[in-house]
Amino acid sequence: MSDLVSIFLQLLLFKLVAPVTFRHHRYDDLVRTLYKVHNECPHVTRVYSIGRSVKGRHLYVLEFSDYPGIHEPLEPEVKYVGNMHGNEVLGRELLLQLSEFLCEEFRNGNQRIVRLVEGTRIHILPSMNPDGYEVAAASQNRDISGYLVGRNNANGVDLNRNFPDLNTYIYYNEKNGGPNHHLPLPDNWKNQVEPETQAVIQWIRSFNFVLSANLHGGAVVANYPYDKSLEHRVRGFRRTANTPTPDDTLFQKLAKVYSYAHGWMHQGWNCGDYFPDGITNGASWYSLSKGMQDFNYLHTNCFEITLELSCDKFPRQEELQREWLSNREALIQFLEEVHQGIKGMVRDENYNNLADAVISVSGINHDVTSGDHGDYFRLLLPGTYTVTATAPTFDPETVSVTVGPGEPKLVNFQLKRSTPPAAPKRRGPNSGHRGRVLPKKVQPRAARKKEMMVKQSQRVPA
Ligand SMILES: [Zn+2]
């Protein structure tokens, strides 16, 4: 056999047995890949489903953690969501690549990845819209070039316009007073949203997520809240305007971490658009109602940004490796961003954990709450802050804390039960608080919700 033939045969053999790592994954292939990663890294992964699509496909999540399935206090939860628009497929493939990468590097003892997995609980939902994806993928095979084919779910609904609109209430509250966080859902919300949206809402309510990104395509830019413009309803020229959250500087930094770690996003010129630093406030680009990122911020403790990752919504298979290499570092760095600011436990005098305690930072009109285990996470840029923890029937506790650029600062709170309003003869050592009216923020959550509902139904302008 000549050398040439031998080389040819070897190449052929290699081609036959080598895994086609960079390819588009249809639903069955996606499920197989998630379980394959789990089988390769069984001790640090878990596959679970958060619900089903209209057509009954599971919305599978792959979790990475040193204790899969368990929330460890003070270990933050982060998530990535891909393929919410079924025809925007790069995020789906990148998240599968990321899953394989995390598993492989963990097994190889890559210290950075080991530290990340041991200190963070990472949830990866590669496809929020598996039905739309199948439609989009089928149209690719038939070479139908419909830009929007497969964008919506099987009921024809755009899932990123399907979340309850809480912006109207927060814009009202920011102006007139009222809760600045955890705005309640409308009573009949389940009837107003699609199955995929319902599954995601239940998911993000059942974990205390701190940081998240939602992966899209059609542009290359890191987009941060708010998505819905405050001036959207104004008739005239300014239909949309920069609409910052109280955490605007932090969101800009989070977006820049992604854009600058990405191969070319930070350059700004992409797909015929220009975004300085490769980032944009959502509303200043175009106003969008009922989106997922605003919902995360207004209803939960989670800070979410939206990543637009490719001009071509359905890139050719040959592009996938280059895209992975230009996003890999950014995807890792963004996860690492959850480790900044302050975190800690909120407990009572007997060391019982206090869930739903409110953590306020003076100067930032957006509070976060402690999770079921009494731990809280407050992302903050370096600086000195006055931080207050409050809980119903407890005295507030305020501390001054200086946050550096590195690891989050541990700030625990131990709240003292406030003395109930009592008759003068029963005055005790804490009598200074006698008869004190609790500030609005420490009203029990149920009472706050009730108050909000009244506000929503009666006082918000249409
Ligand atoms: Zn999209």
Automatic annotation (TrEMBL):
<dbReference type="InterPro" id="IPR008969">
    <property type="entry name" value="CarboxyPept-like_regulatory"/>
</dbReference>
<keyword id="KW-0378">Hydrolase</keyword>
<dbReference type="InterPro" id="IPR000834">
    <property type="entry name" value="Peptidase_M14"/>
</dbReference>
<feature type="signal peptide">
    <location>
        <begin position="1"/>
        <end position="19"/>
    </location>
</feature>
<dbReference type="GO" id="GO:0006518">
    <property type="term" value="P:peptide metabolic process"/>
</dbReference>
<feature type="region of interest" description="Disordered">
    <location>
        <begin position="416"/>
        <end position="462"/>
    </location>
</feature>
<keyword id="KW-0862">Zinc</keyword>
<keyword id="KW-0732">Signal</keyword>
<keyword id="KW-0479">Metal-binding</keyword>
<keyword id="KW-1015">Disulfide bond</keyword>
<dbReference type="Pfam" id="PF13620">
    <property type="entry name" value="CarboxypepD_reg"/>
</dbReference>
<feature type="active site" description="Proton donor/acceptor">
    <location>
        <position position="308"/>
    </location>
</feature>
<dbReference type="InterPro" id="IPR057247">
    <property type="entry name" value="CARBOXYPEPT_ZN_2"/>
</dbReference>
<dbReference type="GO" id="GO:0004181">
    <property type="term" value="F:metallocarboxypeptidase activity"/>
</dbReference>
<comment type="subunit">
    <text>Tetramer of two catalytic chains and two glycosylated inactive chains.</text>
</comment>
<keyword id="KW-0964">Secreted</keyword>
<dbReference type="InterPro" id="IPR057246">
    <property type="entry name" value="CARBOXYPEPT_ZN_1"/>
</dbReference>
<dbReference type="GO" id="GO:0005615">
    <property type="term" value="C:extracellular space"/>
</dbReference>
<feature type="domain" description="Peptidase M14">
    <location>
        <begin position="23"/>
        <end position="338"/>
    </location>
</feature>
<dbReference type="GO" id="GO:0008270">
    <property type="term" value="F:zinc ion binding"/>
</dbReference>
<comment type="function">
    <text>Protects the body from potent vasoactive and inflammatory peptides containing C-terminal Arg or Lys (such as kinins or anaphylatoxins) which are released into the circulation.</text>
</comment>
<keyword id="KW-0645">Protease</keyword>
<comment type="similarity">
    <text>Belongs to the peptidase M14 family.</text>
</comment>
<dbReference type="InterPro" id="IPR050753">
    <property type="entry name" value="Peptidase_M14_domain"/>
</dbReference>
<feature type="compositionally biased region" description="Basic residues">
    <location>
        <begin position="424"/>
        <end position="448"/>
    </location>
</feature>
<keyword id="KW-0482">Metalloprotease</keyword>
<dbReference type="GO" id="GO:0016485">
    <property type="term" value="P:protein processing"/>
</dbReference>
<keyword id="KW-0121">Carboxypeptidase</keyword>
<dbReference type="Pfam" id="PF00246">
    <property type="entry name" value="Peptidase_M14"/>
</dbReference>
<keyword id="KW-0325">Glycoprotein</keyword>
<protein>
    <recommendedName>
        <fullName>Carboxypeptidase N catalytic chain</fullName>
        <ecNumber>3.4.17.3</ecNumber>
    </recommendedName>
</protein>
